[in-house]
Design brief:
alpha/beta, rod-shaped
């Protein structure tokens, strides 16, 4: 014997099926909008990479990545602890800090800073100059790649970190 069907049963099944399909479609659209929103938000945030790590310069004037630069930080001012503070900021930007001390040449520097380097440290000196833009570059003919950052009387703070600009393909 077959079961008797009531007149409203097929219509009720179609309503339930339509409700389930609608809920699944709304969940899919909600997920798609959430993914698109999070993608847009990721583009607007500040990059978490070290900004100067993406500065490569040109073939004629390369710029070293901070993680490959050894910088000695020297204080040529009367401000106690200035070299240590600048060294801490340089480490935060990814530079490897060597010595921290008073200027071994005992020069009086009226400007912001001097960056002393040798021929093999030219790219490293350019990298340090990104952090202290008004610093004077001085090639002192040293033979290694180390760079001395000598803080002068005109120093206030490091320059803002450069940002990595990405080009859109097209």
């Amino acid at each position: 014997m077959s079961a008797t069907r009531t007149a409203g049963h097929p219509q009720r099944t179609r309503q339930i099926r339509a409700a389930i399909v609608l809920i699944v479609a709304l969940a899919f659209l909600g997920g798609a909008f959430y993914k698109a929103y999070s993608y847009i938000q990721d583009d607007s945030e500040t990059p978490t990479t070290l900004a100067s790590d993406c500065a490569t310069g040109t073939a004629e004037q390369p710029i070293a990545k901070p993680s490959t630069v050894i910088v000695n930080v020297y204080n040529a001012t009367d401000t106690v602890g200035l070299a240590a503070g600048v060294a801490r900021s340089m480490r935060e930007r990814g530079y490897e800090v060597g010595e921290i001390d008073n200027d071994p040449l005992e020069k009086s520097i009226k400007g912001v800073a001097e960056i002393r380097y040798g021929d093999s440290g030219r790219a490293a000196a350019r990298s340090v100059r990104l952090a202290v833009r008004d610093a004077k570059l001085i090639n002192d003919k040293r033979t290694d790649e180390t760079v001395d950052l000598v803080i002068g009387d005109g120093y206030e703070k490091l320059s803002p970190a450069p940002t990595c600009a990405t080009r859109a393909a097209g």
